[in-house]
Every structure is written in C-alpha cells, then in structure tokens.
Amino acid sequence: METLIAEGAVPARVSEEPQARATGLSGNRVIVALYLIVLAVTALMGAIIGSIGLRDLEAVTFLGLVTFQPTPLGLAAFGVATIGTFLGTLLLLVVVVSRRYV
Q1: Is 80's pLDDT higher than 90?
Q2: Which of 4, 19, 72, 88 could in theory staple to 47 by disulfide, Cβ–Cβ 3.0 to 4.6 A?
C-alpha cells in the first residue's frame, strides 16, 4: 500500500504488521511428531515382544553392525534403529526432492 505524505512527495511504503499465524501446527512439525510417535510405538512393541520371553527368539543384527539380544530393551532398540533409519531416510529423500523440484 502506498501513501503520499505531502503533495509532490516521494511515495512511501506503509509497513503493515504481518498477521499472526493461525494457531496450529506447521506441516514439518506434524511430520516430525508422527515420526516420533511411530518410533515410540515401535519401541513399545519391541519391549512387549521382548518381555513376553518367547523361547525361540534369537539375537538380531542391524545392518551387520550391531547385534541386539532378545531382551525388552534390545528388541525396543532394534525396532527404533531399524524403523528410524529407514523411515528417516525416506523422509529425508522426500525433503530433498521437494526442495529441488518443487
């Protein structure tokens, strides 16, 4: 919006305060929240499976680097590491592609 201060004066811009964003969550925060919820559910399920104490469970290896024992903590950590890595990688790829091509 332009206004003239006096006749023949140079137009000046009137700075308008940006309207406050509507209260709510941005898209990035929603995705991060969902990601953390999925990881929490994964950890809970791993802990439940580990606490049941099934006798046929064997140690599991993550990417050939770390071996997790079939305990509640071990299976919860394995689930979080696995799902977190692969889902995080997919989300990172979406971010890279969207910034490059959109």
Answers
A1: yes
A2: 72
